[in-house]
Specification:
This protein is mainly α. The chain has eight helices and no strands. The chain has one domain. The protein is elongated, with a radius of gyration of 16 Å. The two termini are 16 Å apart.
């Protein structure tokens, strides 16, 4: 069941706030706290209980485990941060197979736009003080992919709730 659609508005709002928090954390520190990720996971569990008995969550669990299985080697290879992998998997628990496809497409598009934005921002001549304080502007800095995950999840959730 697509919990992102089945969840009541108040629970979808909480998920949205948590995704914004994860994006803010990642954009400032290039880290996503385990507490934020855990709350996203707990939110999916609450959504499953609120949805009522008789729902089949095997697709949601398969999406969650698949994203962890694909993301963990990417983390080990240094391609994704650990927080990014955990956030994507936890967010994936909110989606069934059909919803996960939309989620992954939206995250990929948001990630591409984010990468372009970071390239443009890094090409501007900023003072050393600003470059030191703003993680996104550091020439060798990473890209806060949690921003793309949050944006993609919000877009996918919004489109599916229409």
């Amino acid at each position: 069941m697509n919990l992102a659609v089945a969840a009541p508005q108040w629970l979808a709002l909480i998920l949205s706030i948590l995704l914004f928090a994860a994006a803010a954390e990642d954009s400032v520190r290039l880290r996503i706290s385990n507490v934020t990720v855990l709350l996203v996971l707990v939110g999916a569990i609450v959504a499953a209980f609120v949805a009522g008995p008789g729902i089949r969550l095997w697709q949601n669990l398969a999406v969650f485990l698949s994203l962890l299985a694909v993301g963990t080697p990417m983390f080990a290879a240094g391609k994704l941060g650990g927080g990014d992998v955990k956030l994507l998997a936890a967010t994936g628990l909110w989606f069934d197979f059909s919803g996960a496809l939309g989620l992954l497409i939206a995250v990929a598009l948001a990630g591409g736009l984010l990468a372009l934005l970071v390239l443009v921002l890094r090409s501007i001549s900023w003072s050393e003080d600003i470059r030191r304080r703003v993680v996104l502007l550091r020439p060798k800095g990473g890209i806060p992919y949690g921003v793309a995950i949050a944006a993609g999840a919000l877009i996918a959730m919004g489109l599916q709730r229409l």
